[in-house]
Design goal:
Blueprint (H helix, E strand, L loop, with lengths): L1 H15 L6 H9 L3 H5 L2 E9 L2 E6 H14 L2 E9 L6 E10 L3 E11 L2 E11 L1
Parallel strand pairs: 1-6
Antiparallel strand pairs: 1-2, 3-4, 4-5, 5-6
Length: 127
Amino acid sequence: MSVVYSFLLGLIMSVHFQSDIPYSTIENAFATNDAKDITALGKEKILINVLGKEGVYSQSQANLVLKDFFTKKPGTSFKFIFKGKEASDGSFAIGTYQSKSEEFRVTIHFKKVSGDFLIESLSIEKS
């Protein structure tokens, strides 16, 4: 009987600690150069810094900025190398984006809005 309780407790704990941040969606979007999937996970206004050019953009404008970057630097892979601890107000993560000839560091800050973690800022810089 205690084995059943241990199993149920383990199952509840694993479900409780699943991340609310859509890391796999973001990884897939970067790997497939899908700007729309990335910006759809953002706040109404997103701070974007791509190779030193910074601005606050609506989701549709942010989509164009990222699409332009992906056109110029098409990617071959993306993976998160650090995922910050989720806090009540937000979190951040750092990833590596590999294009055909260059590697870039991607930093994403998330803000918790109405129970969901949304992208507040995104920075892409050469590694």
